[in-house]
Amino acid sequence: MKALQLTERAVEDTKFQLSVLKKNNLVDSGAKGFYYFIFGFTKEYCQKTENFYDSNPYLVSTGVNKNLLHRITDKPEYRFCAEFILNEVQITTEDMRKRLKYQGDSLIVIGNQKKSKIHIHTNSPKNVLKSLEKFGEVTYQKVDDMLMQYLVTKRKSPIAIVTDSIADLPSSYLLEHQVHCLPINILSDNQVFLDKLTLDAKLIKEKIVNKQNLSTAQPTIPSVDALLSFLEDKYEHVLVLTVSSELSGTYQLIAQRIKEMGLSEKWIKLIDSKTNSVAQGLLVKRAVSLIEKNIEFEIIVKKLKNLRSKTFIYVAVADLEPMIQSGRIPQKLGRVLKKLSVVPIVSLDKSGRGVLKGIYLNQKHSTNKITKIISGLVEKHELEEVAIAHVSSYENAKMLSDKVKIITGKPCDVIDSSAAIAISAGIGSIAIAGIKKEENE
Predict the structure, then answer these.
(1) Are 181 and 143 in contact, with CB atoms under 8 Å apart?
(2) What is the spatial distance between Cα 89 and Cα 316, in angstroms, rounded to a whole number?
(3) Among 31, 79, 332, 432, which residue's CB has the most CB atoms within a 10 Å radius?
(4) Do 428 and 367 meet the contact criterion of CB atoms below 8 Å apart?
(5) Where are the beta strands (DSSP E) in 88-232?
């Protein structure tokens, strides 16, 4: 008990040890965390009474929920640990707690109306963020996947797969097969969002409709370093499959971090997928399949590099403006196409650079052309796998998927595209991707 009392006093003293803490009447968070450790130790080994919590005025006065202390669960009850910083806060911290408490647990709100920090465990970081945007300006956000971190302790394979959020795959698939995903940053006016975590295609549609300035940026250095450090002592090998280096700086960034961290080339391999969206997702799925067959790491790397030339993607654009703004279509050509009221099919060449594959009167004509291309591959017995992704156009994508299933006799998943794809391809765009058979199959 004496240690607990001394620690309590030391925590209170931190209010006066730094000017910023004194100004805001706050204690040091690290010291407070250590106090909880001492409290738990004392309660477990030194006290037998059931009213230990109630007899400790410090815990009661600081608002610690006794029902949350020392709760043991087999795995995280909520998937994500999310942190936000909010400026120019328009409500009190107590009101914010009341409005957020139903979105998860482990909720901490500290600060004042000038700046507040929010911590919460939740299944929907984007819903938390949407609520916070009503209370002030969100200037920082961080999301960790606690469930994935937990599952790594029961890993399915000695080889970890890492990709970025531009790879269009269902979140359930990523979780089931323990695929680690680095979120691309989405820039919107003065805010930075995390693709597929705090912003998805549905939410970005609202921002596009409201004509907000939108752009993408590669993952942050800390997020890359944190993931690679986390994986380092948990897997025999790591395979990283990124979006085309011609479309993003993600590949170059990860290559630089691998070098700076001194990671062995035998332990980690970095592959430029030379594609994006649902085509990148198909390559990730193929990597998962090869790993689950217990194929040797070096052979998997070689096979995936060979498969890049067998992978294709065609995007039927519904609105030219986003592709003009993002530079996917040259400004002059884009303006001419807009005047003619036509839309293109956009694809990627062997280097992973965007190319035009035809111009059509409307999206229906362009998707008909793509289905003819698919039919041709089927007639030649060249098609191995196919999938479809869309940006806020599920009904049209589903109708196209049904046609493709009839043509190919194969499953054809329909997947929501990332917010990053929504910015470059535009609302209503539909992508069809596939992998051709290898010669020896």
Answers:
(1) no
(2) 43
(3) 432
(4) no
(5) 105-111, 115-122, 137-145, 159-164, 179-182, 185-188, 191-194, 214-217
CB 343 within 8 A of CB 363: yes
What is the Cα–Cα distance from 432 to 315, expressed in whole angstroms? 6
Does this model's pTM top 0.70? Answer: yes
pLDDT tens sequence across 373-382: 999 999 999 9
Exposed e or buried b for every residue in 316-333, given b needs 16+ CB within 10 A? bbbbbebbbbbebbeeee
Eight-state DSSP code of residue 188? E
According to DSSP, the β-strands at 214-217 and 185-188 are antiparallel
Q: Is the dihedral of CA 211, 217, 222, 223 positive or negative?
A: positive
Q: By the 8 A CB rule, do 272 and 251 touch?
A: yes
Hey, what amino acid is at 335? Answer: R
Cα distance between residue 229 and residue 5, in whole Å? 37
Q: What's the burial of 305, exposed, middle or buried (CB within 10 Å: 0-12/13-18/19+)? A: middle
Rounded-to-integer distance, Cα 351 and Cα 173, Å: 28
From the CA atom positions of the chain, what is the Rg in Å? 25
Give whole-number Cα distances, 78 to 74, 89, 226, in Å: 12, 26, 21
pLDDT one-digit tens code per residue, 29-67? 777 777 777 776 666 666 554 455 555 555 555 555 555
Pair of tokens at residue 47? 């006290």
